[in-house]
Amino acid sequence: MLGFLRTMVGRSGMVKPSCLVRPVAVTRITGRYLAHQESLPKLPVPPLKQTCDRYLAALEPIVEEDELQHTRRLLEEFQTGGVGERLQKGLERRARKMENWLSDWWLKVAYLDYRMPVVVHSSPGVVLPRMEFHDRQGQMRFAAKMISGVLNFKTMIDNETLPVEHLGGQALCMHQYYQVLSSCRIPGTKSDSIVNYSQGRRPPSHITVVHNFQFFVLDVYNSDGTPLTVDQIYIQLEKIWNSSLQTNKEPIGILTTQDRNTWAKAYNTLIKDRTNKESVRAIQKSIITVCLDAPMPRASEEQYRSRAAVQMLHGGGSRWNSGNRWFDKTIQFIIGEDGSCGVIYEHAPAEGPPIIKLIDHVVEYMKQSEMVRTPMVPLPMPRKLRFNITPEIKNDIEKAKQNLNIMVQDLDVRVIVFPHFGKNVPKSHKMSPDAFIQIALQLAYYRMYKVCCATYESASLRMFRLGRTDTIRSASIDSAKFVKAMDNSAIQNMEKVALFEKAVKGHRTYTDMAIRGQAIDRHLLGLKLTAIEDLTSLPEIFMDTSYAKALHYNLSTSQVPAKTDCVMCFGPVVPDGYGVCYNPMDEHINFAVSAFNSCEDTNASRMAQTLEEALVDLRDLLEQTPKAKL
Length: 630
Fold this sequence. Notes:
Layout: H1 2-7, H2 32-38, H3 48-59, H4 65-80, H5 83-97, H6 103-112, E1 125-127, H7 136-158, E2 166-167, E3 170-171, E4 183-186, E5 193-196, E6 206-211, E7 214-219, H8 230-242, H9 260-270, H10 274-285, E8 289-293, H11 301-314, E9 331-336, E10 341-345, H12 352-367, E11 383-384, H13 391-410, E12 411-418, H14 424-428, H15 433-449, E13 455-460, E14 469-473, H16 477-486, H17 493-515, H18 521-533, H19 545-550, E15 555-559, E16 567-569, E17 578-584, E18 589-596, H20 604-624
Parallel strand pairs: 6-8, 8-9, 13-15, 15-17
Antiparallel strand pairs: 1-10, 1-16, 2-3, 4-5, 6-7, 7-11, 9-10, 12-18, 13-14, 17-18
Helix pairs in contact: 3-4, 5-18, 7-8, 7-12, 15-16, 15-17, 15-20, 16-17
């Protein structure tokens, strides 16, 4: 999602036809999973007129009146001149032929063709509650139990006993769960690819562990196919720790932080050597990667969460833990010596919810008392992965360090725990907590900049087979009316409440529409890609200033609710924008706000503070205004 947002903001708005050539393989599984998948409906293609009308409505709060008039004329031509109808029919044909008309396109355009680094620009991090490790053994013990929890979750995937999720009584697509383990992204010079080893004849039985920039293969199953116990994993981690005490190794993992073209070139150089190729393949095939991090610089309790967020997102730079990663790996669990822990995941195979579900499962699993200790069978030493570093590879590593450190310096992340209320307050006013928070974001942005901006909130399309996401456009005509009225002393509170309630209701309506496959953004993308595949000239609506503004998301947001008291974080998707992710708990809300230091107009701390004030003001508005029949 994040990569796509940046891709679509380019000046020409063109997607190269070459990006549509290679189809992406979809993992096939039999049995219960397949039966469930086939029972799901296909993603619909919304009616053309409906999307055009809703697109105009979405533009109204974010573009000037003269631009809107111009777009209105272009849309009229598009619908009546035959071009729109022809593209619509082409898209409908594609929808009839395919399991999901969008999924292959989306994977390519949103992720695999995206050339910026996955670090900061695409891969989200998750900050888990801080642990107190009294010694190194505490860190190893925690890591061992976490690995055991992942294997427990993997058993449900392998046996196809993972409970099917539902939304509003409807079963959801479970495909993404089968994509996240034993998978990895591979860099390519024009487009990347994803490998998934979980469905092979001999699925991988190892994880990779990285400590002091050194990678190890740790087999996590016994010869009879049973997973190692927590005690056995702990002993193996101790062996890894003891044999990787020297930090004078080259941080080979830092190569994965480069932009995709540079990394693809370095990757091809790296794997020319047979030893290197085998080591890289072992990382790619592993179930997950576990990063045992060195402590980061000490931070105050107030700053700790924000510092942990950047540790999860990029590792802190070449001096700290950024070389202790393989950023192409789908899932990496991070356990720091100082108690900081979390996850970073490569976004191409899955959205946040399956990752959070895995995290919730692992956290719950770790609360259970441990099994009776098993008699210790001597286990082989985990295998250290060797890399032959040529002068050319060494030079690539040095360049990667420099570029990463620039990126690290540029990213500002603020994680806040909003203490005043959680889901409880919006629910007490019969409002959707998500809609309440989104309108607060609109208010915060308006207070800072005195304009409304294009806002992206991800909506799950998992009601449909192979569904990924569409966009909830939180900046609406109703939200704009409300935020402009909120600080206007000439307007009575009763009227403000009425406008607020209407904005919240409008957001809820758009959300429902989006999850049912009736939003505008993926449909417009589908029409555009159909035009490119037909090799006809691109319709003017896609080269219009309004379209560029609609895709320039100054606010890129996501609600990722979890049972665990954690928060997801990601970078902004435009140079002058914010990335905002939140996890509403019952009594508080966890927020992560990011911005780039290189932009003078944005400030993550100021946005976080303004958002806190907006939330409190909205609660006060509701509680201080006598309830009348509005």
